[in-house]
Structure formats: structure tokens, C-alpha cells
Amino acid sequence: MDQKRRNFLKVAGISTLAGLGATTGLGRLFEGAKPALADNATPAHAADNSGVKAKRYGMLIDARKFREDPSLGEKVVRACHQVHNVPEFPEKRDEIKWIWMTHFENAFPEQPTLYPDHATETAQLPILCNHCDKPPCVRVCPTQATFRSADGIVVMDFHRCIGCRFCMAACPYGSRSFNWRDPRPFIDESTKNKDFPTRTRGVVEKCNFCAERLREGKLPACVEACGDTKAIVFGDLNDPTSELRQMLKQNHTVQRNPSLGTHPSVFYIV
Ligand code: SF4
Ligand code: SF4
Ligand code: SF4
Q1: What per-residue confidence (pLDDT) applies to 119?
Q2: Quick one: which ligand is closest to 82's CA?
Q3: Is residue 246 one of the residues assigned to a domain?
Q4: Rounded Cα–Cα distance for residues 188 and 184 (Å)
């Protein structure tokens, strides 16, 4: 981390702790979504007293579709990582992941089966940040670089991140990545998204449920990449008429590690 950045982070951290809360850069990108939360552990919609329940964005991933068409996995990862300028480091140990493919047993360690069928054993499904309703990562972040917005999205203000990695230790899903190296030289210039900020060494990052795209009325990039397959359905968990809620009503779904009490907003049909 360079000296200029260290100085900035020091000031930003102190300002935050002092309650001054100045936001810059990406912070401005998420300005509209940023809650005035006194208590990070309190879900934003719980404090809503308008009589109208706030949105709580959620996602349903149909693992069957990813088994039927293995090319879908690559499509969603590429779409997400391109649109968010996720670097491609040559070494696995430096890897930055916003969404990635994994086997059933890694995604659902609480639901082991002694004799898995062939498809369960071999196929992969996408995993990402669960945008938990009770996110431990938010609770431990000392600078509020990670916070839960009023629409249920657990977002990051990269400029406030001091790289302490408390959030990585607290997230039981391994949904966060740390930039051990300067990521900028490892972003493909030919596909770079000029409208989305790049990060720097010493900063944590993760899926943001495409908050910047939602604001423009677009679907998340991974959802769009699935075309009309309905392999991923996105919507408002608080709206009983939403397609997402209808799908949840019609299908048996599971969440990752429900016993941890984090209340993930990502559901799976397995
Ligand atoms: S999955 Fe991890 S990073 Fe995402 S909200 Fe939950 S605890 Fe935080
Ligand atoms: S590393 Fe995580 S916990 Fe630490 S400041 Fe950054 S977002 Fe917050
Ligand atoms: S919702 Fe957006 S940020 Fe999250 S995995 Fe999908 S494309 Fe990436």
C-alpha cells in the first residue's frame, strides 16, 4: 500500500470512528444506497417505519440448469468479472473472486450425503456473497467500509477499507478476496469497464449484487449472462408477487450453512 493511500485511509478511518463519515470515490457510487445505521447489526428494513416494507434483494440459483449446460458457469463468471474489472492474476494464491464455480460438497457442507449421485458429485454450481440479512462481515468492520444498504445489499466502500481483513475472518462463506498485489496491471484493457472503479493493493472486494447496474434499471450481469434460461432469478424477497418469491414458493430451495444464522439472501434449487 503506498504512503498516500495509507495517509488517506488513516484519515478516513479516524473520521468514520469520530462519526464524521465523509465518503469519497466509490462511496459516492453507492451514496443513494447508504443507510444511516447507528447499529450495523440491525437490518435496515427493520428500522423502516414508513409502513411500506423496504426492498430486500435476493437471488435464486437453479443448480440443475448449470448441470444441464456446463458452459453457463463460465458465462456468469466472465460477465461478472469483466463488468467489475476483476483482475486475472497468474498465481492461484492471489486470485480475486466475485462469483465462482464449485462442487456441491463445498457449497453445502451441512448437507453431506454418503452416496452422492453422479451429477451431484461431478457438477459445479456458482457461489458468491450471500448478502446475508445478519452479516457478520458488517459487524466486525471497524471503518464501515462494509455496510448493509437499505435494499439488503451488503456493499463496500473501497476507499474506507484499511485492509484489516476482519471481514474475511468473519465471513463463513469465503466470499471475500484480498488484493495482495496491485490489481490494475492484471485487468484486461480490451474489456475494461471504464465506468466501474478499479481497486488497489490492500483492499478487500466481493460481489455487490450489481448495485451500480440495479440503479440504472439493469439486471445483475450474471443474471443477464444466463439469457432466458432462468438459471439465476433476481428480485425482491419482500415482494410476495415478485418472480423470485413465486419461484421460491414453487420449488424446494436451500441456503448455504443455514445453521450459522446469517440468513443468506441467495437460495439454491439443487
Ligand atoms: S456471505 Fe460473507 S461477505 Fe457476504 S454478507 Fe454474508 S458474511 Fe458478509
Ligand atoms: S478489510 Fe474488511 S473489515 Fe477491514 S476495513 Fe476493509 S472491509 Fe472493513
Ligand atoms: S450479482 Fe453482480 S456482482 Fe454479484 S456475482 Fe452476479 S454479476 Fe457479480
Answers
A1: 82
A2: 3
A3: no
A4: 9
